[in-house]
Amino acid sequence: MRRTRSTATLVAAAVVAGGMALASPAYADPTPAGTFRQLVGVGSDTTQDVLNALAGDTVNGTSYAGTAVKSTSGAGIASYDAIGTATVQTRPAGPTFTRPNGSGNGRAALSMSLTGDKFPNSAGVAIPGQVDFARSSSGPSVSGTALTYIPFARDAVGIAVRGSGLDSLTADQLHDVYAAGSTHQINGQTVHPVLPQSGSGTRKFFLAAIGLNENTVDTSLPTVQENQANAALTQDGTLVPFSVGSWIAQNNGIAPDYSDTAVAAGAHLAGVKLPGDTGGVTSPVTTVDGELAPVSHYYENSTFGRDVYNVVPSRAIDTSGIFFDKDLYDVFVTSGTHEAALASDNAEKVIADFGFLNEAYNGSVNLAKHAKVGGLEISGLDTSTPAAPTLKATRGDASLKLNWTAPSPAPAQAVTDYRVTLKDADGALVATKDLPASTTTYSFTGLALGTYTAEVTAANLNGPGTAAIWTGAVKYTSSTKATTATTAYGKTPKVTVTVTDSHAVAPGGKVTVKEGATILGTGNLDASGKVTIGLSNHLKVATHTLTVSYGGSAKLYGSSATATLKITKATPSVATTAPTSISHTAHAKVTVKVTAPGTTPTGTVRIYEGTRVIATATLSGGKVTITLPKLPKGRHTLHASYAGSSTVNARNGAAFTIKST
């Protein structure tokens, strides 16, 4: 294996000759010192050097200022190394806090930057808004949707070894040598396994690849900073998982070299029998034009190959959200015709130079195309999302107004925003709007007629909660007008109804007239939107308050109006039949008939002579025959008087004369 060490050796010799010594390569935060940029990233050791280069900084003596990745507005990346000074300051007026070392700590710092919690724990410093993304060489550790893991390249984990007998390894051998209770032997040879530091993405990925986790690994194994062979491979028989991309970049002199001493002593990447392969072992690297290069087959293997990610808040790359960060989106996200700045030709050349494979899914946020989502990585954090709001929908003229109240009980993490969506009958998205937590109403106007489903979802930092859902038809409004005329009891009262709209839609359909819950009549509108509805002719004499309701049509909402109908007593006619003469010794019989339109009067009839009542009787079927008392001789002028009832007015009949002889 070729080892590109001549330049590094000469530099070291020159430094020593000048009376200075470097214990290790220099670490690189944004340069020059005191530089602050808009998009702050922390975390993984594996991808720190390539991100430093993509940020336009100087890496291992080479300036990448000419190919610095920026957003369309000019926002640049500030990538802070996993190791270096104990603390970092990422904003001009921001706090100084513990440097996040490794993928897990980087994701934790991003999470705490969102929540405002103290990093790295309650004894640390609150860091609200101090971190925008995290470098990560492994996927999520917590389920959820708060963070999006955007792949930008392909890496692999190899096994850096020193000494003979470790050139060919299998996943089973690695499992056995790293497992709790292991005797640490491979093929009878005692070996000395080493692990990357706690929180390392490479450590997490490697353990999963060989079927172990933090509960089943040998916890007594020594640990070193990941991707530093000098610290790990100090004797023959040692082995340590190592980013292949980092190994290539260090060996090719592209990245700061933490492995030169180990390589000079014989350290190299072992060949691995890849799970699923039927052939022999596969080396992770090859030599091309005198430099190390990736072996694609090894990188693409599903066990030891891995995507490396830039982790961002999911809400920051939601183009329809109120927390959308266009600069972050421009740099990291490829979607549709929008290409991430990290996926440009210049950026991908830099990515390849640092030992990674470029993939077509660089910048993908599609979960079917290598992107992942995960929850906030804060110990003890309540990860619940909000319950559904209480939703009320009011339909208007081709419009829909939504009103809601906050979820109850309130979630542990406060509601940050509400997402309102509207879908048509086929489920296609019509509109969506993200609103701040202080807003609890929204209207959709100018809608096409049809059935819609509206959803309102409250979100907090953990992600969106349960949606409140309304489904119904959206139509045009109608207006109903009703008129009546005062009507006498017994006659048919009528309600004239006119329904109109403002969209040249001919109203059609049924109209119902009610008094309270009682239906008094129905009718169907004619082509002009009118109908006259006859009601019962036996409504009681009173002033009636009517509700006139139009049931609507395929294009029109129903509408209603109130109308007052006054029913008065009927006006009767009184007819009398009597003899013209009678003996003073006999009793005359008088027949009285009382009539009124639409009703048969009931009640009392009296026969008067002058002002004196001489006989009284009760109507039956609207008439009665009354026997008068004996009349003294002479002419008697009489008249019948109907006393009236609850539905018919009183009325006097015409005078008539009986001669008593």
List keywords for this structure.
six-stranded mixed sheet, 11 helices, nine-stranded mixed sheet, 47 strands, 661 residues, rod-shaped, Immunoglobulin-like, 4 domains, disordered N terminus, D-Maltodextrin-Binding Protein, domain 2, mainly beta, single chain
Question: How would you portray this structure in words?
Answer:
Helix content is 13%, strand content 37%. Mean pLDDT is 94; it is low at 1-24. The chain has 661 residues and is mainly β. It is built from eleven helices and 47 strands. The strands form 14 sheets. Strands 1, 4, 9, 10, 14, 17, 18, 22 and 23 form a nine-stranded mixed sheet that branches. Strands 40, 42, 43, 45, 46 and 47 form a six-stranded mixed sheet that branches. Strand 24 and strand 25 (399-405) form a beta hairpin. The protein folds into four domains: 24-381, 3-Layer(aba) Sandwich (D-Maltodextrin-Binding Protein, domain 2), CATH 3.40.190; 390-473, Immunoglobulin-like (Sandwich); 478-568, SoxY domain (Immunoglobulin-like), CATH 2.60.40.2470; 573-660, Immunoglobulin-like (Sandwich).
